[in-house]
Design a protein that fits this description.
single chain; about 270 residues; alpha/beta; Rossmann fold; 2 domains; 5-stranded parallel β-sheet; 11 helices; 9 strands
Length: about 270
């Protein structure tokens, strides 16, 4: 019996940087170096950039670039603190976090145990476990965090050996967590692609989505201009351009394509 353990679900000098993504991450060399350094030193760091700017891709690449990343926990942000506590607890269980396993006393059914826990109990367990056996916690996509979340992360962020990396669209999105990231030295802004980088990414996307048989030159100018250096928007425009609904003969119908692409980033 696999007692007390949950199964793992399957589910510039700026230059091109490879990442586990259908398309490479272009640019962000300096940002990647800074994030890797913060991860290694277990520092506190806020990553700011609009939707589609490459925050999640940057995080994924930087974690993968480390020699070892078993002490790094990456989870999508949940505005509901209890859900966040459950997600964090589940990862500690799956990765055999010895301090948490010792405190939890799970029994034979970890998921049932999790479903029976209160936020107050889980919060205390997580504080004690992570203070005993620290991890670097990455919260991707912070949006309007409340004071209960702030108080939980505040204690962890001051614990020895615990690093805290969070990403958000802008400072307002942090909500109460802005109290943790008041120092601009702990903030990294994701810059837009410059023109050569945007053209490089566009050409990669055209090849990736096999769009060379279409009238590309007009689409290139409109897509790069509309994306304004946002790699996520540029890739989304090319993704939609491969959909026959936006094609008439060899012409790409840019106006409806642009509207639908924008909806993803609102």
């Amino acid at each position: 019996m696999n007692r007390g353990r949950l199964p793992i679900q399957q589910n510039s000098d700026r230059r091109l940087v490879a990442v586990n993504h259908p398309l490479p991450l272009v640019g962000l060399r300096a940002e990647c170096q800074r994030l890797v350094s913060a991860l290694r030193k277990r520092q506190r760091l806020l990553i700011l950039g609009p939707a589609g700017s490459g925050k999640s891709a940057l995080i994924a690449h930087s974690v993968a670039a480390l020699e070892s990343h078993q002490d790094i926990i990456t989870i999508p942000y949940s505005a509901n603190l209890h859900h966040l506590l459950i997600d964090l607890s589940r990862i500690l269980l799956r990765t055999d976090h010895s301090a948490f396993l010792k405190l939890a006393r799970l029994g034979d059914d970890p998921e049932r145990w999790l479903s029976q826990q209160t936020s107050v109990h889980l919060r205390g367990l997580l504080w004690t476990a992570l203070e005993t056996e620290p991890r670097v916690i990455i919260l991707d996509g912070i949006s309007s965090a409340g004071f209960p979340t702030y108080r939980f992360l505040q204690r962890l962020s001051f614990a020895k050996g615990v690093g805290l990396i969070v990403s958000a669209r802008d400072p307002i999105s942090l909500g109460a967590l802005s109290r943790l990231f008041w120092d601009p030295r702990n903030t990294m802004h994701i810059p837009p692609l410059n023109d050569p980088e945007a053209k490089q990414l566009f050409d990669m996307a055209i090849r990736h989505f096999d769009l060379n048989h279409l009238e590309i030159e007009e689409f290139r100018v409109k897509a790069i201009g509309a994306a304004q250096g946002n790699p996520g928007q540029l890739i989304e425009l090319c993704t939609l351009a491969a959909n026959p609904v936006y094609i008439s003969g060899t012409h790409i119908k840019f106006a409806p394509l642009r509207i639908d692409a924008l909806m993803k980033f609102i």
